[in-house]
Amino acid sequence: MAPPTEVLVQTSPETHPHVPKRTTVKALVESDGLTSIPSNYSYATHPNESDASDPNDTIPTIDFSLLNSGDPHQRSKVIQDIDKACQEWGFFMLVNHGVPETLMKAVLAGCNEFFNLPMEEKMEFATKDIWKPIRFGTGVDIKVEKFFFWRDFVKVIAHPEFHCPSKPQGFSEVVQEYCKRSRKVTMELLKAISESLGFEENYIDKAMNLKSGWQIFAANLYPPCPQPELAMGIPAHTDHGLLTLLIENGIGGLQIQHNGKWFHVNPLPNSFLVNTADHLEILSNGRYKSIMHRAVVNSKSTRISIATANGPSLDTTVCPALELVDNESRPAAYIPMKYKDYMNLQLEGKPGLEHVRLPVA
């Protein structure tokens, strides 16, 4: 996911005369003679954003099927593994999750078809308003950032009510089935996480009012970039919500921060990449950390990724679980805030955690 204030790019016609003033990254790449990127796409690396390397430690892998194997010892072991992964990495690969590989490939193909639609059909959904149920765009609001992301996107609200563009044909049905299946996986993971925190399995479901929980389906298109070392798909950020599930089209680009260093993620085939998000950090009173991650681009291949972000209901006030707070030994580390208010903070370009995290005494 990315900060939610995105608009369509204003490209300099002086720099690239063949590109219309209002365009997408895809149109920019497909214009004649593109050998360098416009200056407003050039990303100055921040001091904490060093180059990434391959991790020395193996990224945790969780076998989802063992959660429902009927063997209580296996389930207990997997819950311990999830607890460790959420504490130490804030990230894990999920295998044997039951979502058909054919469905995962179909939804990636459908997103590719959407991005290939004529510009005017995609432009129907161009908006700055994060509360619109369907949004198409590229880049980021210049008031918030000084540069544009090398990315086009479509985002839809998938729960509690499902929305989706009607084109291309069959796209809505595939996205709906994918969101339904991935949300079912998320709900099972949150049961396990409830238990890993010492609660009964439905604790998070009830506390976060997940029957009306917010799910966003976000498809990202990262076209080949002639100067990938100067551009950024999505800069370092954390996600709002509880858990984000991500898949990609076999082209890498996701990088995660672990122990202060950046690492490439090379996913196993047909796996979900799962990361803990801000509101799981808040609810666990800091036991689990919302992981910093970013998306880089390359010069050869188009990358498509799909993130499904799963959060509380908009009216839920999220704060540390009372059972995880002790005023003396474990004071509350975050102030309470409604999920909707938290998302509105991001409209202003402000990292939400900085606004709810209490200073350490």
Automatic annotation (TrEMBL):
Domain Fe2OG dioxygenase: 212-312
Pfam family, one: 2OG-FeII_Oxy
Protein's UniProt keywords contain Chaperone: no
Entry annotated with the keyword Magnesium: no
GO molecular function: metal ion binding; oxidoreductase activity, acting on paired donors, with incorporation or reduction of molecular oxygen
Annotated stretches, region: Disordered: 1-24
Keywords, comma-separated and alphabetical: Iron, Metal-binding, Oxidoreductase
Superkingdom of the organism of origin: Eukaryota
TM region(s), chain numbering: none
Signal peptide boundaries: none
InterPro entries: DIOX_N (IPR026992), IPNS-like_FE2OG_OXY (IPR044861), IPNS-like_sf (IPR027443), Oxoglu/Fe-dep_dioxygenase_dom (IPR005123), Plant_2OG-oxidoreductases (IPR050295)
Family designation: Belongs to the iron/ascorbate-dependent oxidoreductase family.
Entry-linked PANTHER family: OXOGLUTARATE/IRON-DEPENDENT DIOXYGENASE
Name under which the protein is recorded: 2-oxoglutarate (2OG) and Fe(II)-dependent oxygenase superfamily protein
Lineage: Eukaryota, Viridiplantae, Streptophyta, Embryophyta, Tracheophyta
